[in-house]
Amino acid sequence: MGKHVEKRRFTHDTVAIGTAMLMTLLGCGSSESRDLNRVATDKGVVVGIEKGTMRQFLGIPYAAPPVGQLRWRAPQAVAAWSQARNSSTFGPACAQPGGATGAAGTAEDCLYLNVFTPTGPGPFPVMVWVHGGELTTGEGALFDPTALVNQGIIVVTINYRLGVLGFLAHAALSAEGDGTSGSYGLMDQQAALRWVKTNIASFGGNPGNVTLIGESAGGFSVHAQMASPGAAGLFHKAIVQSGAYFESIAPPMLAAAQTVGAEFASQAGCGDQSLACLRALPVDKIVGLSTTIRTGGQMLPAVGTPFLPIPIDEAFSTGKFNKVPVIEGTNLDEYSFISGTSIDPALGHPISAAEYPGFVTQMFGTELASTILDYYRLNTTNTPAQTFDDVGTDFLFACSGRKVVRRFAAAGLPVYAYEFADTNAPQFIAFPPRPEGYGAYHAAEIQYIFPVNGTDSMSATPFTAAQADLSRKMVSFWAQFAKSGNPNASGSTEWPRYDAASDTYLTLAPGALATNTRFAEQHKCAFWTPGV
Question: Residue 185 pLDDT more than 80?
Answer without folding.
Answer: yes
